[in-house]
Amino acid sequence: MKLSTIISIGILCFILVAGIAGIYSQSISLISGNTEMNVVASGSMEPTFHRGDVVIVENNPGKLNVGDIVVYNPTWYNHSIIHRIIGIKKSSKGELLYEIKGDNNPSPDPYLVKRNQIISKVKIDNNGPEVIPKLGYITLWVRGV
85 forms bridges with which residues in the sheet? Predict the structure, then answer.
């Protein structure tokens, strides 16, 4: 067999395994530890991410800042969402609340987000957010999303 054929078969197997694993969870664990992959399911973060892109995230992020892209569990929707922090406020009790918005959305998400709703933060390297373009399409197709 040619090396290119072996590589192609390996990539196809990885995509299939990632797609099947994606049926059962919101994110696919890369290595035991703090890093996972999440599939982008909508165009709300374009042009930063596109539907079907896979983003690399770190669980239990430390300090969060304006500009960070996070995965959170909204109170108004049944699935996690990947959006950007655009503001940080304090409640009357001193609790930090995050104003979050998709880059491609005209307005912020409908409710402020508490820290315990934020699951992970998109990893950033020297070139920006860590993303694997279009790798998640198989997961979206299998899920029917």
Answer: 100
